[in-house]
Amino acid sequence: MNVILTGATGFIGSFLAKQLVNQGHHLIVLGRQNFEFFDEGIEQHPCYLQDLTGLSTAIFLDVDCVIHSAARAHKPNDRSDDSLAEYRRITRDATLNLARLASDCGVERFIYLSSIKVNGEQTSPRCKFKPHDDFTSFDPYAISKYEAENGLLELAANTGLEVIIIRPPLVYGPNVKANFASLIRWVNKGIPLPFGAIENKRSLIALENLIDFILLCADKSRSPNAANEIFLVSDGEDVSTSTLLRRVARAYGVKSRLFPMPVSLLRLVAKFIGKGSMADRLFGNLQVDSSKAFDVLGWKPVVTMDEQLRKMAFNEKDVKKS
């Protein structure tokens, strides 16, 4: 396949780029930064995705699929009007401009990496998010993602472009950043953590599983029924925060130091120190229904959570040795 990829320097995009090249696909990267993971096999075109006027349309010729993984990073407590305008400019408008250009140049498929935040921040016990749940979020990031999705589906309805929207929950894998990286550091340092009594349920997706699903959707011959669909994907195994931390400890070969403390007290402390949103992610439920990916495309995860965590631990050991 000939594939255009945005966000190739990001956590997901960099791994996806390597997989595309390793599988022998011709990869064209769009973005501001140079992509230096390979000496050859990648065609780079520096550009600002917010302004594609100087980008030659010739690079879209004979392209089978555009995978759009670039986006403005989510900031949990940023809910200002200015923030929404900026998210719309970078997330919604840039996405739709790129998709229109791809459509005009005859590209057949456009894969949009959205976010589970379009569905919401939490689920009720024994309930799971589904692809076509009503949108109720007030978060600027989620709003811009949702509006980009709607614009893409409208474009698909009016052109021959096939749009595929993927909303992953938390993605973890080698070189993961943000809160998941913090959890790993806490566990590795042997810090006693008061999370032993947490019995929530959260869906996650291993980086390898997400990349495998994206590659399936990019190949029209393997996934003809993916066109103009929205998919929620996960590992298919929902775990509590306490279970996750114990599995991290086991994978990294350290002792789990969890002790129980009432969740109500933990929430109160978190709110007092201004970490209420983090508490929601640590103690709340967020489950997704991945059955559509299984039923429509026959997709199944290629690695288990324990396998991905072990690979993360092995990767970190290699990095430290070098």
Can you tell me the CATH superfamily of the domain at 2-172 and 205-236 and 287-302? Answer: NAD(P)-binding Rossmann-like Domain
CATH topology of the domain at 2-172 and 205-236 and 287-302: Rossmann fold
Number of separate helices:
10
Lateral strand order in the biggest sheet: 3-2-1-4-5-6-9
Strand runs, count: 9
**Multimeric state:** single chain
**CATH architecture call of the domain at 2-172 and 205-236 and 287-302:** 3-Layer(aba) Sandwich
Unreliable sequence segments: none
Mass-distribution shape: globular
The helix fraction, in percent, is: 40-55%
Residue share in β-strands: 5-15%
SS content category:
alpha/beta
Tell me about this structure.
The structure is a single chain. With 322 residues, the chain is α/β, with parallel strands linked by helices. The model has no long low-confidence stretch (mean pLDDT 91). It has a domain at 2-172 and 205-236 and 287-302: Rossmann fold (3-Layer(aba) Sandwich). Helix 1 (11-22) crosses helix 5, helix 2 runs parallel beside helix 3 (140-158) and helix 6 (241-252) packs across helix 10 (305-321). It has helices at 11-22, 81-104, 140-158, 178-188, 207-218, 241-252, 263-272, 276-283, 291-297, 305-321, and strands spanning 2-6, 26-31, 42-46, 65-68, 109-113, 162-167, 170-172, 204-206, 229-232. The chain contains 10 helices and 9 strands.
